[in-house]
């Protein structure tokens, strides 16, 4: 079993959907990634920063799940990063109502000593220079470096993003961002162009339409589980990435074939995440529920045509 | 091996895409369905109508493929149905430039005597009363009646559509149409409502995002093959339906498990259809190409997670 180091926000979110709205609740990419990866009982550490206003009980939720938080800096006189958003009726688009960087503005990630030899590094969505700083702190080259990013960094830090992408193995990105990054509409062509930027593996997240994994000329398609109701999509992409990274850290098999399984695990965990507000569903998820839903994914996608 | 009777337009299309434009070429739902089904060497008949302007060579293309065209009425002094459309840059939406019903306006389908005991009936997109007329001509109840429709009939013949839908086993419909027909955004909920209208099986076509097959609480997801380039989407949905119907007529196994395979065959054939203008690719398709692409569909979707 490999070690997993995660960098990402640990934050407050306030979310409004057609089904209701929340006050400030636990959120952040690092949180969702860590919670998802914790389903695999890997040794993982979250590297992040919070303010003095961040409740101890939220930190305890992570340590309870065997997530090392020694790399979560607490700035006593600072305020925790806060994001607020409102989803439209179709749940496929949202407006950001507020983004208060607070302590995140001066965030300098520090990887715990014990994790500088981690096999897997998961770089959650942050400034590409912050992501690069984590990679630079690793004392042994990770077996797998995974990076998530978003259109914001393409708009305001494209050169830095290109420099960081060169050094990673897997990028996870949504379909519109893949198109923006490459100027290509076809996701097949976009994935090839992203390969040329560095990553050997490209995961394109298509929300309710699932996710594609590209490697050289190979492609794998994991659908999203068709759901009666998407209650809150917040964190689904990070949960996907956390499941993907956690499964690979656990199995230590970084082949394309095993990465298919990692994509399925990521999709499975993401299908739970959207059932409740924020992290609620992920905090109340049992191994037998995951096992049962994996079975649903199998019957959703597996067929029996013999090719001779 | 069962017999398959198909009703649908045999027509002229003129198509414009970002890649080019055509003059009047062979088109029509009945044509695409028939060509797709012919890959399974089933006994099939197309029921349709054309004008005196319809070239004999186009009819010969069908008889060459063992498609019975005795049910294709030729109205000597009439003109063939003509549709013209222009696709937008993303290829996911199009404008209809012209629809000339011509001989289709007075179309009264006549099922050939030999096909009044066909096991499978494929009702291509037409007025629901025309579709019902075909069902009414069957002397033995088909094992499987499949219906394709579109938003146009929901707008202008909704009651007739509801009456026809009651009598069919499988409906194929695209995602936006499923939402329009039911008033539900969630495709899971929409499929359940459509079940209640009659069809035991609901196939929801999502274009580049694949297709979903619903039956009671079971669901199967066939992705579309990610393509470098979609050259012309015209006929892809009909080709899907023709592959689906043809495979089921060939195997005579109408179980949910076998219907999964039928969806995969439909998706496979549709992935070829979009590679060239109109029917061009379907007219130059070999069994070994189909076989090879089925292999691609397997590696695209099959994974190896053992559940104990």
Automatic annotation (TrEMBL), chains A, B:
Q: What Gene Ontology cellular component terms go with this record?
A: cytosol
Coiled-coil residues are none
The organism of origin for this protein: Winogradskyella ouciana
Query: SUPFAM superfamilies given for it?
Result: Ribokinase-like
Q: Does the keyword Kinase apply?
A: yes
Keyword entries, A-Z: Kinase, Transferase
Q: Which PROSITE patterns match?
A: PFKB_KINASES_2 (PS00584)
Q: What is this protein called?
A: Sugar kinase
Describe the location of the Carbohydrate kinase PfkB domain by residue ranges: 3-281
Q: Which PANTHER family match?
A: RIBOKINASE, SUGAR KINASE
GO molecular function of the protein, one example?
Answer: kinase activity
């Amino acid at each position: 079993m490999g070690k997993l180091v995660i960098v990402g926000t640990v934050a407050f979110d306030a979310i409004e959907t057609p089904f209701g709205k929340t006050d400030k609740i636990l959120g952040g990419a690092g949180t969702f990634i860590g919670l998802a990866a914790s389903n695999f009982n890997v040794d993982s550490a979250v590297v992040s920063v919070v303010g003095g206003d961040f409740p101890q009980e939220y930190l305890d939720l992570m340590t309870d799940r065997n997530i090392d938080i020694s790399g979560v800096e607490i700035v006593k006189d600072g305020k925790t990063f806060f994001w607020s958003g409102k989803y439209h009726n179709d749940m496929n688009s949202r407006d950001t109502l507020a983004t208060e960087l607070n302590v995140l503005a001066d965030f300098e990630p520090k990887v715990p000593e014990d994790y500088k030899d981690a096999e897997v590094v998961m770089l959650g969505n942050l400034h590409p220079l912050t992501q690069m700083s984590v990679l630079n702190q690793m004392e042994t080259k990770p077996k797998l470096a995974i990076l998530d990013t978003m259109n914001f960094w393409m708009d305001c830090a494209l050169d830095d993003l290109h420099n960081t992408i060169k050094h990673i193995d897997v990028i996870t990105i949504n379909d519109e961002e893949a198109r923006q990054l490459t100027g290509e509409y076809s996701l097949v062509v976009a994935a090839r162009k992203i390969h040329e930027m560095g990553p050997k593996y490209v995961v394109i997240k298509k929300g309710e339409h699932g996710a594609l994994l590209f490697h050289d000329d190979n492609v794998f398609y994991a659908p999203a589980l068709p759901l009666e109701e998407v209650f809150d999509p917040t964190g689904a992409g990070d949960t996907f990435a956390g499941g993907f990274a956690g499964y690979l850290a656990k199995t230590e098999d970084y082949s394309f074939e095993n990465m298919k399984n990692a994509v399925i695990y990521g999709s499975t965990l993401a299908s739970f995440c959207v059932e409740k507000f924020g992290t609620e569903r992920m905090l109340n998820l049992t191994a037998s529920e995951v096992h049962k839903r994996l079975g649903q994914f199998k019957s959703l996608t597996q067929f029996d045509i013999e090719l001779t």
